[in-house]
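Quarterly update, task 2.4: pyridoxal-5'-phosphate-bound model.
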Amino acid sequence: MKTPRYTDHIQSLSADSPFIGPERHERATGQPFTARLGANENIFGPSPKAIRAMAEAAQDVWMYADPEAYDLRSTLAAFHDVALDNILVGEGIDGLLGDLVRLMIGAGDTVVTSAGAYPTFNYHVTGYGGTIHTVPYKADHEDLPSLIAKAKEVDAKLIYLANPDNPMGTHHVGADITRHLDAIPDGALLILDEAYVELAPQGTAAQYDVQHPRVIRMRTFSKGYGLAGARVGYAMGARDLIRSFDKIRLHFGANRASHAAALAALLDQDWLAQTCAQIAAAKITIAQIAADNGMIALPSATNFVAIDTQQDGAFAKALVQALADQGIFVRMPFVAPQNRCIRISCGRPQDLAAFAKALPKALETLAAG
Ligand SMILES: *Cc1c(COP(=O)(O)O)cnc(C)c1O
């Protein structure tokens, strides 16, 4: 008998990570990146009040965090005008997606997502033995009516939609999502991933009753609030659904400093507003850099911009590599036709200046073949 005895399913999986961190590249080359524009972190940083709260809470980190995250959860409940029981705090959206998939998906269960959408959902589904069905993007937007139609066809238990979308940065107005909610078939649950919603135009967040039985929405402190490494996200949904996470979630998965930082960040909406202003300015700069190099920036409702290289995926991939060689970390969509783009996170003026300098050089390298 061989030890350790993995499950048959786990043995069938490859150990390729959906994300390779920039640190691996830096270790391999011995060179730190000059500009970290690939992971959609908020390079403008969190509220100084969040940093202070984290520093103060650090002294108490010998204690497990409150497994009910009561202070943060009750403040979120007031902020969103929902009951405490409609909110769950978890280890980022990535962690919450894993818990949700564990609740719903076993071997042979089906889910629906868009081809080339945010990959962590798929990662969890694959890990639990589920089957993924996809529909294509429509003009660089995720396509909710097609996702719902596909869900009916394959009897999907989960439907994944990010609004705004990553990697394209496009969005739907909330009313267009709300309009389709009643068409979600019985037995299916829509996951509304709103990782970027704080940065999106007014009206992007769909309005509906939090007790809606076929939707769960997820938000995070990683992007707009600038706390990606703190690992705090939350889900809002019907009471029984939210309560069911208590059966399987990691009750001590977060720490006090992270919860304190998230709470302080939430209460500093002025900081979020000035972050949005810096992001808006960065998007204009990125669009200009794209245009200066004969490429087109797609409109973005997020803190990153997809730049259409007007070439194919192989070209975009080579460009991402050539930029890395110039010290610029960026990423790109995985699937055609979106993979004609490269994806640039909004950065400070010095980050974008480094990108502006590296891009024409990278393009020259490619042209030289
Ligand atoms: C960044 C991102 C996440 C990850 O959020 P965490 O809260 O840091 O886990 C989830 N969904 C989308 C669409 C993202 O872009």
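Highlight for this quarter: The longest strand covers residues 215-220.
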